[in-house]
Amino acid sequence: MPWPSRKRDKGAVADKKEPDAKIAKTEEETSDQEEEEKSAKPPAGSSKSGWKNWKKAKESESGGEESKITYCHWLLKSEPESRLEKGVDVKFSVDDLKAQPNQTTCWDGVRNYQARNFLRAMKLGQQAFFYHSNCKEPGIVAIVKIVKEAYPDHTQFDQKDPHYDSTSRKENPKWSMVDVQFVRMTKRFIPLSELKAHHLAHKADGGPLKDMMLFTRQRLSIQPLTQEQFEFVLSLEEQKPH
Q1: Any idea which of 37-46, 107-116, 189-198, 224-233 has the lowest mean pLDDT?
Q2: Which of 3, 23, 27, 170 is nearest to 79 (CA)?
Q3: Which of 32, 97, 140, 146 lies at a 20 to 30 A Cα distance from 182?
Q4: Which residues pair with 184 in a beta bridge?
Q5: EVE domain location, by residue (predicted)?
Q6: Is 31 within the bounds of a domain?
Q7: Helix (H, G, I), strand (E, B) or coil at 145
Protein backbone atom coordinates (compact mmCIF):
# COMPACT_ATOMS: atom_id res chain seq x y z
CA MET A 1 0.00 0.00 0.00
CA PRO A 2 1.58 3.31 -1.03
CA TRP A 3 2.56 6.00 1.40
CA PRO A 4 0.50 9.18 1.63
CA SER A 5 1.17 11.52 -1.25
CA ARG A 6 4.21 13.75 -1.11
CA LYS A 7 4.03 17.54 -1.14
CA ARG A 8 2.21 18.45 -4.31
CA ASP A 9 1.39 21.36 -6.58
CA LYS A 10 -2.33 21.72 -6.06
CA GLY A 11 -3.76 23.36 -2.98
CA ALA A 12 -0.59 24.91 -1.60
CA VAL A 13 -1.26 27.01 1.48
CA ALA A 14 0.15 30.39 2.38
CA ASP A 15 3.05 30.54 4.80
CA LYS A 16 1.72 31.37 8.23
CA LYS A 17 4.72 33.57 8.89
CA GLU A 18 4.37 35.32 5.55
CA PRO A 19 0.66 36.08 5.02
CA ASP A 20 1.41 37.97 1.81
CA ALA A 21 2.84 34.89 0.04
CA LYS A 22 1.19 34.68 -3.36
CA ILE A 23 -1.33 31.93 -4.04
CA ALA A 24 -1.86 30.80 -7.63
CA LYS A 25 -5.36 31.22 -9.01
CA THR A 26 -5.43 28.63 -11.79
CA GLU A 27 -4.64 24.92 -11.98
CA GLU A 28 -1.83 25.60 -14.44
CA GLU A 29 -0.15 27.91 -11.98
CA THR A 30 -1.08 26.22 -8.71
CA SER A 31 1.93 24.55 -7.08
CA ASP A 32 4.21 24.58 -4.04
CA GLN A 33 3.97 27.55 -1.72
CA GLU A 34 6.36 30.39 -2.36
CA GLU A 35 9.17 29.24 -0.14
CA GLU A 36 11.49 32.01 -1.16
CA GLU A 37 9.55 34.08 1.37
CA LYS A 38 10.65 31.64 4.08
CA SER A 39 14.34 32.16 3.53
CA ALA A 40 16.25 34.46 5.81
CA LYS A 41 17.97 37.53 4.39
CA PRO A 42 20.76 36.03 2.31
CA PRO A 43 24.25 36.32 3.76
CA ALA A 44 26.29 39.08 2.22
CA GLY A 45 29.20 38.60 -0.02
CA SER A 46 31.21 35.54 -0.79
CA SER A 47 29.10 33.73 -3.37
CA LYS A 48 30.50 35.60 -6.37
CA SER A 49 34.14 34.68 -5.84
CA GLY A 50 33.11 31.15 -4.93
CA TRP A 51 31.32 30.81 -8.28
CA LYS A 52 34.29 32.14 -10.23
CA ASN A 53 36.70 29.75 -8.50
CA TRP A 54 34.34 26.85 -9.15
CA LYS A 55 33.98 27.85 -12.81
CA LYS A 56 37.76 28.00 -13.29
CA ALA A 57 38.11 24.51 -11.84
CA LYS A 58 35.36 23.11 -14.11
CA GLU A 59 36.81 24.79 -17.21
CA SER A 60 40.20 23.32 -16.37
CA GLU A 61 38.68 19.85 -16.11
CA SER A 62 36.75 20.19 -19.39
CA GLY A 63 39.43 22.01 -21.38
CA GLY A 64 37.41 25.22 -21.25
CA GLU A 65 34.27 23.84 -22.93
CA GLU A 66 30.94 25.12 -21.66
CA SER A 67 28.25 22.69 -20.51
CA LYS A 68 25.28 22.28 -22.83
CA ILE A 69 22.09 23.90 -21.55
CA THR A 70 19.98 20.79 -21.13
CA TYR A 71 17.96 19.52 -18.20
CA CYS A 72 19.28 16.16 -17.01
CA HIS A 73 18.78 16.40 -13.24
CA TRP A 74 15.87 17.33 -11.01
CA LEU A 75 14.76 18.79 -7.71
CA LEU A 76 11.82 17.12 -5.95
CA LYS A 77 10.02 18.88 -3.11
CA SER A 78 8.40 16.98 -0.26
CA GLU A 79 6.98 18.00 3.12
CA PRO A 80 8.81 16.55 6.16
CA GLU A 81 6.29 17.92 8.66
CA SER A 82 2.71 16.76 9.19
CA ARG A 83 -0.03 18.58 7.30
CA LEU A 84 -3.54 17.29 6.69
CA GLU A 85 -5.00 17.55 3.21
CA LYS A 86 -8.62 16.37 3.02
CA GLY A 87 -8.02 14.42 6.21
CA VAL A 88 -4.83 12.72 4.99
CA ASP A 89 -1.38 13.52 6.34
CA VAL A 90 0.79 14.39 3.33
CA LYS A 91 4.04 14.33 5.31
CA PHE A 92 6.87 12.49 3.58
CA SER A 93 10.45 13.11 4.67
CA VAL A 94 13.68 11.59 3.43
CA ASP A 95 13.55 9.31 6.50
CA ASP A 96 10.18 8.06 5.28
CA LEU A 97 11.74 7.28 1.91
CA LYS A 98 14.63 5.43 3.55
CA ALA A 99 12.12 3.32 5.51
CA GLN A 100 10.42 2.09 2.31
CA PRO A 101 11.16 -1.39 0.93
CA ASN A 102 14.37 -1.12 -1.07
CA GLN A 103 14.31 2.59 -0.15
CA THR A 104 12.07 3.13 -3.18
CA THR A 105 8.67 4.78 -3.64
CA CYS A 106 6.35 6.16 -6.31
CA TRP A 107 6.28 9.95 -6.60
CA ASP A 108 2.52 10.39 -6.86
CA GLY A 109 -0.01 13.17 -6.43
CA VAL A 110 1.43 15.81 -8.79
CA ARG A 111 -1.44 17.96 -10.06
CA ASN A 112 0.26 20.72 -12.02
CA TYR A 113 0.63 20.30 -15.78
CA GLN A 114 4.14 21.68 -16.07
CA ALA A 115 5.35 19.58 -13.14
CA ARG A 116 3.65 16.54 -14.69
CA ASN A 117 5.44 17.17 -17.97
CA PHE A 118 8.75 17.31 -16.11
CA LEU A 119 7.91 13.93 -14.56
CA ARG A 120 7.24 12.54 -18.02
CA ALA A 121 10.62 13.84 -19.22
CA MET A 122 12.58 12.01 -16.52
CA LYS A 123 14.87 9.21 -17.69
CA LEU A 124 15.95 6.04 -15.94
CA GLY A 125 19.01 6.58 -13.76
CA GLN A 126 18.83 10.37 -13.65
CA GLN A 127 19.50 11.88 -10.24
CA ALA A 128 17.50 14.43 -8.29
CA PHE A 129 17.85 16.44 -5.12
CA PHE A 130 15.36 15.56 -2.37
CA TYR A 131 14.23 18.93 -1.03
CA HIS A 132 12.41 19.40 2.27
CA SER A 133 9.63 21.90 1.62
CA ASN A 134 7.05 23.89 3.59
CA CYS A 135 8.92 23.51 6.86
CA LYS A 136 10.87 25.62 9.36
CA GLU A 137 14.08 25.46 7.31
CA PRO A 138 13.58 24.34 3.69
CA GLY A 139 16.52 22.91 1.82
CA ILE A 140 18.26 19.99 0.13
CA VAL A 141 18.81 16.92 2.28
CA ALA A 142 19.54 13.99 -0.04
CA ILE A 143 20.02 12.60 -3.53
CA VAL A 144 17.64 10.14 -5.18
CA LYS A 145 17.56 8.52 -8.62
CA ILE A 146 14.80 7.66 -11.09
CA VAL A 147 14.29 3.89 -11.14
CA LYS A 148 11.05 3.78 -13.16
CA GLU A 149 10.00 6.24 -15.83
CA ALA A 150 6.59 7.91 -15.97
CA TYR A 151 3.44 5.78 -15.75
CA PRO A 152 -0.17 6.54 -14.70
CA ASP A 153 -0.58 7.89 -11.18
CA HIS A 154 -2.99 5.57 -9.36
CA THR A 155 -4.11 8.26 -6.90
CA GLN A 156 -6.05 10.14 -9.60
CA PHE A 157 -8.57 7.26 -9.65
CA ASP A 158 -8.80 6.73 -5.85
CA GLN A 159 -11.81 8.60 -4.46
CA LYS A 160 -10.36 8.36 -0.94
CA ASP A 161 -7.11 10.01 -1.95
CA PRO A 162 -6.78 13.81 -1.51
CA HIS A 163 -5.50 14.02 -5.09
CA TYR A 164 -8.41 12.20 -6.70
CA ASP A 165 -9.38 13.69 -10.06
CA SER A 166 -12.90 12.87 -11.21
CA THR A 167 -12.16 14.24 -14.68
CA SER A 168 -9.33 11.79 -15.41
CA ARG A 169 -10.11 8.59 -17.33
CA LYS A 170 -8.23 5.31 -17.10
CA GLU A 171 -8.13 5.04 -20.90
CA ASN A 172 -6.45 8.46 -21.05
CA PRO A 173 -4.95 9.36 -17.64
CA LYS A 174 -4.15 13.01 -16.98
CA TRP A 175 -1.51 12.47 -14.34
CA SER A 176 1.75 10.55 -14.17
CA MET A 177 4.28 9.50 -11.56
CA VAL A 178 7.76 7.98 -11.45
CA ASP A 179 9.54 5.73 -8.97
CA VAL A 180 12.53 7.10 -7.08
CA GLN A 181 15.14 5.40 -4.94
CA PHE A 182 17.29 6.85 -2.17
CA VAL A 183 20.96 7.22 -3.16
CA ARG A 184 22.56 9.05 -0.25
CA MET A 185 22.21 11.95 2.14
CA THR A 186 23.99 15.11 1.11
CA LYS A 187 27.19 15.61 3.08
CA ARG A 188 25.49 18.49 4.82
CA PHE A 189 22.10 20.16 4.75
CA ILE A 190 22.02 22.86 2.05
CA PRO A 191 19.41 25.44 3.13
CA LEU A 192 17.24 27.57 0.88
CA SER A 193 18.81 30.72 2.33
CA GLU A 194 22.26 29.64 1.12
CA LEU A 195 20.98 28.71 -2.34
CA LYS A 196 19.25 32.09 -2.53
CA ALA A 197 22.51 33.92 -1.75
CA HIS A 198 24.21 32.15 -4.65
CA HIS A 199 21.21 32.77 -6.92
CA LEU A 200 21.34 36.52 -6.26
CA ALA A 201 25.10 36.65 -6.82
CA HIS A 202 24.84 34.59 -10.00
CA LYS A 203 22.19 36.93 -11.39
CA ALA A 204 24.86 39.61 -11.28
CA ASP A 205 27.83 37.62 -12.60
CA GLY A 206 26.22 34.98 -14.81
CA GLY A 207 26.64 31.97 -12.55
CA PRO A 208 24.73 28.68 -13.01
CA LEU A 209 22.03 29.39 -10.42
CA LYS A 210 20.90 32.68 -12.02
CA ASP A 211 17.92 30.97 -13.69
CA MET A 212 17.38 28.18 -11.15
CA MET A 213 13.66 27.39 -11.07
CA LEU A 214 13.71 27.24 -7.28
CA PHE A 215 13.61 31.04 -7.55
CA THR A 216 12.12 31.75 -10.99
CA ARG A 217 9.24 29.24 -10.69
CA GLN A 218 9.42 28.58 -6.96
CA ARG A 219 5.92 27.15 -6.63
CA LEU A 220 6.68 24.08 -8.77
CA SER A 221 7.29 20.92 -6.76
CA ILE A 222 9.09 19.20 -9.66
CA GLN A 223 11.91 21.26 -11.14
CA PRO A 224 14.58 20.53 -13.75
CA LEU A 225 18.27 21.30 -13.27
CA THR A 226 21.03 21.64 -15.81
CA GLN A 227 24.23 19.64 -15.39
CA GLU A 228 26.01 22.84 -14.39
CA GLN A 229 23.39 23.71 -11.76
CA PHE A 230 23.47 20.20 -10.32
CA GLU A 231 27.27 20.14 -10.14
CA PHE A 232 27.46 23.58 -8.55
CA VAL A 233 24.98 22.65 -5.82
CA LEU A 234 26.92 19.42 -5.22
CA SER A 235 30.09 21.50 -4.81
CA LEU A 236 28.44 23.28 -1.86
CA GLU A 237 28.63 20.02 0.12
CA GLU A 238 32.35 20.59 0.53
CA GLN A 239 32.01 24.18 1.70
CA LYS A 240 31.36 25.39 5.20
CA PRO A 241 27.83 26.78 5.70
CA HIS A 242 27.62 30.56 5.37
Answers
A1: 37-46
A2: 3
A3: 32
A4: 143
A5: 73-235
A6: no
A7: strand
